[in-house]
Amino acid sequence: MAHTAPAPGPAGSAGQGDINPWAASGIIFAGVLLLVDGVLGVIKGISGIATDDVYAHVRNYTFKFDATSWGWIHLVLGIVLGVVGWSILKGAGWARATGVVIAAINLIINFVWLPYQPVWAIVSIAIDVFVIWALCTERSKAVI
């Protein structure tokens, strides 16, 4: 008796249960990047809370906060990023949509924070752009 492979779905794609390995890998990488971005956020937060001279002093800026305020913003956001990243790696269904939202919020916060620490802000923005892309490209429910 010969075994036949299942017919591909519409437009030559595999069946609905199949996961694109590139997209699944991207989602796993996005989870890891959210964890890394969360750790960076916690480090940014602690350094901002601990000392006032760790960030550049910016004059005449619309979104001017003191270092302690920025520290608390990054600390809280870093913790949330880490939890969502870990949840993505664990396969929680809610975590992918939440990951897109929290990465977008983090991207905006880092854009506003750009004059204070340009290198850290640009690194975080780049991570967030990739995370949003990776989480939005794969539509399957299972990741791992």
Can you describe this structure?
With 144 residues, the chain is an all-alpha fold. The chain is elongated, with a radius of gyration of 19 Å. The two termini are 32 Å apart. About 8% of the residues have low confidence.
Percent range of helical residues: 55-70%
**Binned strand content:** under 5%
Oligomer: single chain
- Structural classification: mainly alpha
Any idea what the shape is? elongated
What is the alpha-carbon Rg in Å? 19 Å
Number of strands: 0
Distance between the first and last residues' Cα = 32 Å
Low-confidence stretches: 5-16
Give me the strand/helix succession: HHHH
Mean pLDDT: 80
* Biggest pleated sheet: none
Please count the helical segments: 4
Keywords:
144 residues; mainly alpha; 4 helices; 0% strand; elongated
Give a concise summary:
The chain has 144 residues and is mainly alpha-helical. The protein has helices at 21-50, 67-90, 93-113, 118-137. The protein is built from 4 helices and no strands.
Secondary structure blueprint with pairings:
Elements: H1 21-50, H2 67-90, H3 93-113, H4 118-137
Helix pairs in contact: 1-2, 1-4, 2-3, 3-4
